[in-house]
Request: fold
Amino acid sequence: MSTAILPSATTTTSPFGSASHLQCRECGARYSLGAEYACIECFGPLEVGYEFGTVTREQIESGPLSIWRYSALLPVSATAALEPNLAPGFTKLVRADNLARALGMTGVLWVKDDSGNPTHSFKDRVVAVAQSAARRLGLSTLSCASTGNLANAVAAAAARGAQPSVVLIPSDLEPGKVVTTAAYGTTLIAVEGNYDDVNRLCSELIGDPVTDDWGFVNVNLRPYYAEGSKTLGYEIAEQLGWRLPQQVVIPIASGALLTKVDKGFREFIDLGLVEETPYRIFGAQAVGCSPVEQAFRAGHDVVRPVRPDTIAKSLAIGNPADGPYALDVVRRTGGSIGAVTDEEIVEGIRLLAETEGIFAETAGGVTVATLRALLRSGELDPTAETVLLNTGDGLKTLDAVSPHVGPAGTIAPSVSAVVDLLGGAA
Amino acid sequence: MSTAILPSATTTTSPFGSASHLQCRECGARYSLGAEYACIECFGPLEVGYEFGTVTREQIESGPLSIWRYSALLPVSATAALEPNLAPGFTKLVRADNLARALGMTGVLWVKDDSGNPTHSFKDRVVAVAQSAARRLGLSTLSCASTGNLANAVAAAAARGAQPSVVLIPSDLEPGKVVTTAAYGTTLIAVEGNYDDVNRLCSELIGDPVTDDWGFVNVNLRPYYAEGSKTLGYEIAEQLGWRLPQQVVIPIASGALLTKVDKGFREFIDLGLVEETPYRIFGAQAVGCSPVEQAFRAGHDVVRPVRPDTIAKSLAIGNPADGPYALDVVRRTGGSIGAVTDEEIVEGIRLLAETEGIFAETAGGVTVATLRALLRSGELDPTAETVLLNTGDGLKTLDAVSPHVGPAGTIAPSVSAVVDLLGGAA
Reply:
C-alpha cells in the first residue's frame, strides 16, 4: 500500500510530478512553476497545468490510503507521500439510507465525510499539497490567514513537518479555535480587525523581507493548494466503483472546492479512468453570505461582494475569488445553487446527526439544508444518485447547536425517577 | 474491499460468528451466549470464548477498511459489516520520528491514533461490537452511563442504526459534552450525582421492565463490547507488516483496553498470523486516579479503589473492573505502569501536538507523559520499537489546554506590526 506512484519515467525526478506550468485562467498566459498566483498580464488567477502520462486504476489502487494515491495527478513529486505530512484523504463515503428516507429520496444518497481527516476538515487536503509545493520552492515557514479549519490544518501540518508556521487570525476569534490552533505550537498572531483585514495583511506581507521564506498556503501557494481539492472528486469516483454520481451537493466559500471537484471528475474522464456519464453539480450557501447564489439566481456572470452575517463562519467569504468559476460549473452541468437560513443550518446539522450519526460543522448543515431545499423546489432529482460533501466537524462549532439540544430531564439517581421521566416522555 | 469474511462454512450462519460461549474469568464456569456479564457461581466477570477456524492474512487484507476486517475473530455474525454501523477502526499508525527525537529514543516510535474514529475515540470500536450483539440478542435500545466519549459513540451508533438510545450522564457534566451527545438525537438523562452514582443506577435499571429491550453496552453487553478493543492490537500488528512491536504504552481506565490489546496479540500468535516475538506492555495512569499503578508499585494483586481527582476524566475510574487483569498482563510481559501529574498531562498533550500534529485528549497526554516518565526511570527501553496508543481527541478536552496556550501577541493590521512582533520574539 506504500508503493510510490510513478506516472512515467520522465516525471520521477520532476519536483512537481506531471505538473508542467502555471496558466492564467482568464487570458491563458503561461508561467513556469513558482510561488506565483496572479497573472502579470491581466491579474487573473493562476492554475496548475499538467502533461499527464498514463495513469491506471491499478496504479491508484496500489497506492497509500490517502490523497497520495493520486500523486500522479497532483503538482507534487512522486515521493510526496514519503515526506513528513499528515496523510489526509481517503475519508469514508457513507451510504446514507436513513437521511435519504427522511428527505423522501428514492435515489441512493451518499455522504462524503471529510470530518475524518487528521484535523477534521477538508483543509488538510489542500494544505498537504501546499506543504509539498513549499518544500520544492524553498519556503520553509507555512503561513495563512484563517478563522478556524485552515488555521488548524496549517499549524498541525507544520508541526508534523518539523517546520515553523505563522498563523494570522482576527483578534475576536472564539477562544476554542484559538486553543486548537495554538496547541500545535504555531506562532499565532491575533490581528485587530476582521477576517478581510487579516487576509489583506497577508497579501501585503508578501514581498517584505520578514516573509522571504514564508509560504502562505492560500495566497502565494494557492495554485498548488487548490489542486488538493480535486482529490475529493477522485475519491468519490473511485469509492463509487470507478464511476461518477448523477448529482453532487457542495458548499461554496471561495468556490474553489466546487470547481476542483468538477475538475477532478473531468480529469478522470479524460484519462479514461471513468466513463463519461452526465453529472450535475449543486452549490450550497448560507443566506447570510450568498453572493454566488444571488448571482446564479439573477443570471449574472459577475459575483457582487456581500458583508457576511451567518453562523456558518467557514463559508463566510463575502468576495469569493472562484465565485465566477463556480457559476460556470453549475451552469455547464445543469445544476443550481441554493441558500439556507441559520435556522435551517442548525436543522441540517441535527438531521444529519440524528439520521446517520455524523456530527457536522455549520458548513455541513448548510449542505444538508440546501439539499433539502433543492429537493423541495424540484431543482434536485430525488430519484438520482446523489453525493453530499461534509467538509468539517461539529466539535468545532458547538455554539451553533448548543442552544437547541440538551437533556430530556434532570432526575434523582433512582430507577423510579427514570421510569417516571420516560413514561412522561412517551 | 467489501468482501465479507467467512471463517468457515459452519460459522457463516452463526449469529456470533466463531464465538461459542461465555466463560467466567475467575472460576471458568461456562454459559451460553446471552446478555449476561457476571458469573452466577462466583460473581466473576464473563468473557467471550471462541472456536476459531482458519484465518489467513489474505482473508483479513481483503476485508473492509474497518474493524470488520477482523469479523472472524469477533463475537459477531459474518454479515456485521453489512448492517448499519459507523464502521470504526483501521485508524492510522503514524511513525513519530519527531516525538522519538524529542524523547531521546533511538528505537522507532509509532502513534496508533484512534482520534480518527467516527466520533474520535476508541469507544466507537467497542460500541460497534456491542451494537451487533444487541441486534442478535433482541435488545433494540442502546444505552450506557458515560461522561463523554462513550456517550458520543453510543448516541451516534444508535442514530446510524436507526435505533433508540438512552444515555445517562452526571448532571454536572461540561456543557460541551452534553451538546455533542444530544446532537445525535439520543434520549439524554442527566442524573443528580457523580459518575459512580450514574453507573450504579444503570446496574439497578437492568431487570426493571422499562429496560427490557435495553442493551447497556458496558454492563449487560460488556463481554461483547470489551472484545472490540482487541482490534487495536490486531491493527497494530497488521499495520507493522504482520509482526508485533517490542513495547506498547496503553492508558488504563477500567483496564479492559490494555488486557484486550494483549489478547489480540496472543490470538494473532496462536492463529499463526504473526511470529511469537517478545513484547512488553506498559500502563499509563494519572496521579489523580492511579489505583492500578499503586497496586503495581506495591506488588499487590488487588486494586484498592480511589476517589478520582484529575483532568483526565476519561481515565477517572476509581474502582477499575479489569485492574487485576491489567496487572497480570503488565507483569507477565515484563512491562510496568507509570502515573503522571495533571501538569505533565498538559505537557504530554502539547508535546504530541507540537511534534507530530496530533491533538490528543487528556488520556493521550497521560500516555505520552507516561512514556516520557518511564524512559527517564529506565523502565522503558529507548532503543526498542514502541507503539503509543492515542485513544481520543483534543477537541473534546479543550479546557485542559486553554490556560496554557495562546497568541504570541495581538497587533494592529500592519506589516510593521508583524515585523516588530516577530523581531521581538526572535
